[in-house]
C-alpha cells in the first residue's frame, strides 16, 4: 500500500550515531518530529537541536521550507541556529588567532542560511565583524573570512547599507588603495564598495572621492580575473551613480587613459573565457557610454543657431562644393537661396529648409552629427552616395538625408540608446570597444549598406519603409552574431544581401509552421517518390500534347514553324512543318507510323528530311525516318553543348538563345544525328527537357520541377496534418519500450478451439 502524499521517507544522521530511516509526516509540527528523532537517540532538550539539509549550504529546516524535503532526502541533526550563533559570536571574542579563524570559517559556511543570519544579526554579529574589519590586525586569512561573512550577512537585505559608518567605509577604501595586499582581500573590498555605492548615494560620493579612477585602472591591469571583475563592477557602479556631466568627464578621462583599448585586447580577447559577471559589467559600460548620445538625440535642431546652420551648409558644400562655387558666382541673394534650397532637396531633405526635417526627436541633432561625421571621415563615399542618387530618376533615387535620419533612429533602437541598464543583461558588442566613435563608425557602414540594399531591391520612394525594414533585419542579424571588430561587421553585413534576407525569412516561417520539424521532413521524404512520379506523368503528357517551335535559318531568322510531339505510346518523337498562323496539328493529321517496324514515319508534305532549325536539307531522296524513335535517342544536350548554337559562333544574338536551346542526339544509321530545338519560353524549355530526361531515365533537375515538387509537398503535407492542428509534434519519436520478458500472453492460432 502506497504511503500518503504528505509522508516522505528520509534519513537522519548525526556524528557518531547510527542513521535513522523515518517516515516524515509533513502535517506533523516540526517540534514534534525533532522530539521523536532526539528520543530515538536518547537525547534530552530537543529544543536545543535542529534539522539541516546534509548537502549544499546545510540550510536549516523550518516550517517555511520543509516542503523542499523529498523522498530520499538526507538530513542531519545539529545545534539549533540561535545556540550556534551565540557560540560562534563568542568565538570571535577569543584572543586566539587560530580559534577566530576556525570560528569565521564556520560562520562563512552558515551565513547564506537566512534562519542562521537572522540569529547572528539580532545578536549584533555585524558590528562584531565590522570591528574585526576596522581593526585590520590581520590582513590575511582572518580579514578575508571576516569580509566574506559580512558580505554574506548583508546580502540577505535585513540591514540597509546606508547604516554603515563612514570610518568603516574609509577603512575598506584603504584596503582597495593599498599596493601590497592579500589577493583575496581586495576583490572582497571592491565588492563591498560596489554594494555601498549602488545602495547609498551619500556613501557612494564618499567612495567616489576616496577611490581614484587611476587606482581602479591599476586593478584592471592585474592579470587576476576576479580582481578585474570586481574593479569593473565598482567602476560601473561609480558611473551609474554620477550625474550626466560627471559621467561624461569620467568616461572621457578613462578613454584618454586607453581603457577601451585595454578592455578590447586584455579582457575581451584574453586567453581565459569571459565570465558572466564581467560580460554584464561590459554591457553596462557600453550602455552608459552610448547614453551620452541621448542629449543630442533628444535635442531638435535650432533654426536660429549659427553653429547648426553652418554645419548644414558644410554638409551641403561637401557634396556640391564645385557645382555651388561655379553656379553661385555673381548670382543675386535670391538666386543663391534658390540654388541652396535645390541642393538641399538633392541631398535628400524632404523640405527646402532642412531645419524642419531635423526638428523630429529622436533623432534630433544626433542625425546631423552622423551625417557630418560621414561627410568628413568618408568624403569619397559620401560624395559618391549623394551624386549617384541625384543622377538617378526621381522615383529611384535614395534620399541621403531622409535615410540618415531614419537610420539614426534605427541604430538608437537597436543599441537601446537612452534606455536604463538591465540588471542581468550581458549582450554587449565586442566591436564597440574596438574603435573610438563606434556609434558614428557604425552609422558610416550602415548608410552604405542602405544604399546597396536600395539598389538590390530596385526601390522607389514608395518603398522607403520596406527598405528600412530589410536594413533593420540585416543590422539586427549581424549584431546578434557579435562580430569582434567593425571590419568583421562590415564583411558579415555585406554578405547578407536582400535575397539572403528573403531566404532566411522563408526558412524561419517554415520553422514556425513546423514544416522543418524532423517528423515533417521525414514525411516529406516519403512523399517525394510518389509526387515525382506525378510530375513525370505531367511532363510526358505535355510532350504528347506537343509544342510549336520556330525554325532558325542560316541567317538567324525565326520565320518558320514546326511542330513536335511524343506519340501516345511514348516510343516516337513525331514532327512536321506547320504553316504560319495555322493551329497546331492533331495527332491524326501527323504522318502515319509504319506498322512493320514501328519506327519510321512517312511525311508526304516534306520532299526530303529537313533540319528542324536550320532548314537545310539532309538528303535528296524521300525518307521514312522524319520521326525519331525514343529507343535510338542517345543523349539530351542543352545550352552551349547544342550543335546548332555552338556552330553559329558567340554573337550577342546567339547568346540570347543559350538558355532556350536543347538538342536530342540519336542514331541515324551508322551516323549520329541531332534534332534541335529552341523553346518558345523558359517554362517550355523546362517542361521539354524534363520530359525528355524522364524518357531517357535521367533525373528531372530543372528549376520548374523543384518549384512544382515544393508546391505539391506543401499541399500534401498540410492535407496529411489537418487532423493534427494545434497538436504539438515532438522533435523525436517516443522511445520504443523493451520487449517483454516472455510472450505467454500471445494467442496461439494453431491450437484449434474445441
Textual characterization of the structure:
This protein has 754 residues and is α+β, with helices and mostly antiparallel strands. Helix content is 51%, strand content 9%. The protein has 29 helices and eleven strands. The strands form three sheets. The protein has a four-stranded mixed β-sheet. Strand 5 and strand 6 form a beta hairpin. Helix 6 (141-154) runs parallel beside helix 8. It is flat and about 120 Å long. 29% of the residues are buried. This is Engulfment and cell motility protein 3 isoform X3. Keywords: Apoptosis, Phagocytosis, SH3-binding. It comes from Ursus maritimus (Polar bear). Pfam families: ELMO_ARM, ELMO_CED12, PH_12. GO terms for molecular function: SH3 domain binding.
Briefly summarize what is shown.
With 754 residues, this protein is of the alpha+beta class. The protein contains 29 helices and 11 strands. Strands 2-1-4-3 form a 4-stranded mixed beta sheet. A 4-stranded antiparallel beta sheet has the order 5-6-7-8. It has a 3-stranded antiparallel beta sheet with strand order 9-10-11.
Could you outline the blueprint of secondary structure elements for this entry?
Layout: E1 7-13, E2 20-25, H1 30-40, E3 49-53, E4 74-79, H2 81-92, H3 97-110, H4 114-122, H5 125-135, H6 141-154, H7 166-177, H8 185-199, H9 201-210, H10 213-220, H11 225-241, H12 244-256, H13 259-268, H14 276-291, H15 294-297, H16 306-328, H17 333-346, H18 365-377, H19 379-390, H20 400-414, H21 438-457, H22 464-480, H23 486-494, H24 498-512, H25 518-545, E5 547-551, E6 560-566, E7 572-578, E8 628-629, E9 633-638, H26 643-646, H27 652-655, E10 661-668, E11 671-678, H28 682-696, H29 703-720
Parallel strand pairs: 1-4
Antiparallel strand pairs: 1-2, 3-4, 5-6, 6-7, 7-8, 9-10, 10-11
Helix pairs in contact: 2-3, 2-4, 3-6, 5-6, 6-8, 7-8, 7-9, 8-9, 8-11, 10-11, 11-14, 16-17, 16-18, 18-19, 18-20, 18-21, 20-21, 20-22, 21-22, 21-23, 25-28, 25-29
